[in-house]
Amino acid sequence: MRAPPQSRRTMTEIPAPGRPIRRLNLEWLGVAPFIIFAVMFLILPTLYLVSAAFVGRDGQLTFDNIAGLFTDQILAAYWISIRISATSAGIGAIAGLAITLAIIRGRLPDALRSAIMTFSGVASNFAGVPLAFAFISTLGRLGLVTIILKALFDIDIYRAGFNILSFWGLTLTYLYFQIPLMILMIAPAVDGLKREWSEAAQTLGASSWQFWRHVGFPILWPSFLGTLSLLFANAFGAIATAYALTGSSLNIVPILLYAQIRGDALQNPGLGAALALGMIVITACANIIYLVISARAERWMR
Amino acid sequence: MKPNKLWAWIVFGIGAAYFLVPLIATFEFSLKMRRGYYSFDSYASVFSDPRFQTTFGYSTLIGLFAIVVGILVVVPAVYFVRLRLPHLRPLMEFITLLPLIIPAIVLVYGYIRLYNSSSIIPFTGSALGTDVLLTCAYVTLALPYMYRAVDTGMRAIDIKTLTEAAQIMGADTARIITSIILPNILVAVLSGAFLTFAIVIGEFTIASLLNRPAFGPYLQNIGANRAYEPSALAIISFIITWGAMGMIQLLARFAPRTSARTD
């Protein structure tokens, strides 16, 4: 009843400048909670940390905190974090692509396909502390796989140098959410490879290898690279799994930052902020690569 | 294309082994609490632990609040941006992408420094304030998923026509959103809600650093101190995640198929 009748037709149009103020207020009122929320819980805290990274103990502008990152312990932490993220992203991307190709191009039964997609949705969210428990029960010293390998094949993986609390242990654990994430992200691109293209290639006498070499992989490549960078950022920020698995024994950046927040382990709040800034810069770079590449990849998705 | 099938089955087999073996191993381990034979003792031990009940209840409650706040923040914004302010779309897309770029541990570090007990808004000064901050942190974590779910839902219905029709019938904007738009995108909103719940229920980093008695820190504590209960908890967590995802799949069948008219 309250809506003025003359506004009926214009409700759905973009308001031209100089429309009645009351109407502008209303739509901004709807968007305002979102904007306020984003400013309070995303933008301000991040900006605060970024600026804190450039403030010394005395409150003056300084680059000491950034320079402080270049110590052996912190550089080593970044290096291990980058290695684990890159390795788990790389293997996860290749394995995920292989499974996606198997279910879509390999024409596995439809029921299997939908089961795998559902499972991927679950597994990509099954991260954090419980995932660490699962891998300790599997590959820990008393894990089922460890025991079976020892009993049946006389292979002691721990004597062979494996440890679930190590680089490869953590990487293997991260793959449990990296591979499903890859499957979910790359499936639309693999679906986009039209059957006509491979039929056309076959008609022209191309072998299966030639089709993939000159048509298939070049089309998938941008989506592949893009998702790879997303997986990298995903692993780089993860902490719960690593913390539950290794406690604070593995020196990766999120665990170092956790210790800093908990008890000022670096004994310098500014350095803590710089550590956080370093994480943002690295994940932001990975995501910018993703955005640029995925914008390019979308050309093929029509 | 017959030979193609073999490699597909091999890849599938390796993948299935990698994903199923840890689940089987965890389940088997969770049954071994009593020496000599399998039993569900570890599950009984978990369920009878009062800390399990209180932390799980606490996380469920915070999760429900996060869902409600998330809906209140996202739905009106997406509605007005789609209807009247399309130039704000790129900004919304960018903002909702931020939680994927900024790691959760960095966000909570920012909260702790910015909203400490001596700041203008001292969220961390009281238990209730910290609960509010934790809720908002979870809304932020789930923002990318809630936004995409709601946005997809609104794309599938013709909100312009619905809004015009409702206005002709004399409905005001609040009424249009609550009794026209919301019921039509209910499936999408519920998908976002279940995804939020799946993300929030076992979350460790933020709850632990804000020192709240949530399920995630409890899990970590049990993992550090017990032998068989962690694997029981891992199985329980997996079932909860599966339940939330299963609900989303189930809901997708009821999604309205009447997309925006093209005539």
The helicity of chain A comes to: over 70%
Instruction: Say how many strands of chain A there are.
Output: 0
Largest sheet entry of chain A = none
The Rg value of chain A, from CA coordinates, equals 25 Å
CATH architectural name of chain B: Orthogonal Bundle
H and E string of chain A? HHHHHHHHHHHH
Q: Report the mean per-residue pLDDT of chain A as an integer.
A: 82
Spans where pLDDT lies below 50 across 5 or more residues of chain B: 259-263
- CATH top level of chain A? Mainly Alpha
Number of strands of chain B: 0
Largest interface: A-B, 90 and 94 residues
Main location (chain B): membrane
Organism (chain B): Devosia ureilytica
GO biological process, one term (chain B): transmembrane transport
Keywords (chain B): Cell inner membrane, Cell membrane, Membrane, Transmembrane, Transmembrane helix, Transport
What does this structure look like?
The complex is a heterodimer of chains A (302) and B (263). Chain A is mainly α. Chain A has one domain (70-301): MetI-like fold, CATH 1.10.3720. Chain A contains twelve helices and no strands. In chain A, helix 4 (110-125) crosses helix 7 (167-191). Chain A is globular. Mean pLDDT of chain A is 82; it is low at 1-16. Chain B is mainly α and 263 residues long. Chain B has one domain: Orthogonal Bundle (MetI-like fold). Chain B contains twelve helices and no strands. In chain B, helix 1 (4-30) crosses helix 12, helix 6 runs antiparallel to helix 9 (186-200) and helix 7 (159-168) crosses helix 8 (173-184). Chain B is globular. Chain B starts with a helix and ends in an 11-residue tail after the last helix. At the A-B interface, helix 1, helix 3, helix 4, helix 5 and helix 7 of A face helix 1, helix 3, helix 4, helix 5 and helix 6 of B.
